[in-house]
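Please describe our next protein:
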Amino acid sequence: MSETFFAAYDALSARWPAGTATRTVPTPYGPTRVHTYGPPDAPPLVLLHGGGATGTAWFANAPALGTRHRVYAVDILGDVGRSERTGLPLRTSQDLMTWLDAVLDGLGLPTAALCGHSYGGWVAAAYALHAPRRVRHLALLDPTQVFGGYRPGYLLRALPMLLRPTVRRVGAFLDWEAAGTGVDEDFKRLYVLGAALRRRPVVGRTLDPTPLAMPVLVLFAGRSRVHDAEATADRARRLLPRARVEVLPGLGHHALPIAGAAAVDTIVLEFLDTRGVSAPVNDP
C-alpha cells in the first residue's frame, strides 16, 4: 500500500511547475519535507494542507502564488507524506506548534504569511495564536475547528472511514462530500490511498480566534458538508470583524484549493498585497 501511495504522491509532485525544489528540514520531532517554488527573494508564504492531502496538493495554486511569493508547501508531521516522526514524541498541539517553530527556523523565516486549508487552517490559526509576531498575514481556506465544530451529519458519515479506513470506504466518503464539485482524480487517488496509512494526527480543541490581530482572510466553500458555510462565515465575521470573509459558491470542502484555484489564488494574492488593518499584537 505504501508503494502505491508514494507513487500517487510523486504523481502530484510532478504537476508542480518547473523550477520547484524540495527540501528536508530537520526538526526535533523528525525530518519535514517542504516543496518550494517562486523567487527566492520574494515574500515567504507557507502553505499547510488539509488532513491526508500532503504538501503536494498545492500544485494547482503554486504557479500563481509563486509569481509574487516564495511558496513553501509543508508535509505536516504526523500526517501522511514524506515527513517522518523519528525524534521526540509529537502528541499535543503544543508539540505541533514547537515543530512548526522549528520548520520556520530551519527555512530561515523569522516571519511569513501562512495559508492553511481544512486541518491545515486549524494548524495555521493555532500557530498565529501561538506566535503572532511570526505571522504577517493569515489566510484560512474552509478551516475546521476555528469558527465552530463539525456538522453532526458529516461526523456520522466519516465515522466508518475513521474506525476502519479502506480504499472503498474512503473513496465513498470523498465522493459523497465532494459530489459535483470537481475533485481532481490524482488528488483523490492520493487521499484514498493515504487514509489507510494515516495515523491519528495531532488535533486540539476548537480555537478561540478573537485574539488574532494580524490581517486575516477566511474563504469558505459554499457546498462544504463539513459545516454550514454561510452560518459559519457569519460567525467568523462576528468574531473577527476586521477580517475579510467570503463564501465561494459551487465548491466543496475537499475541492476548494484545487478546483477553485483561479478564484482562491486571485483573492489570496490580493489579500497578501495589502497591509490590512491590525491591532497591536502582544505575544502570549
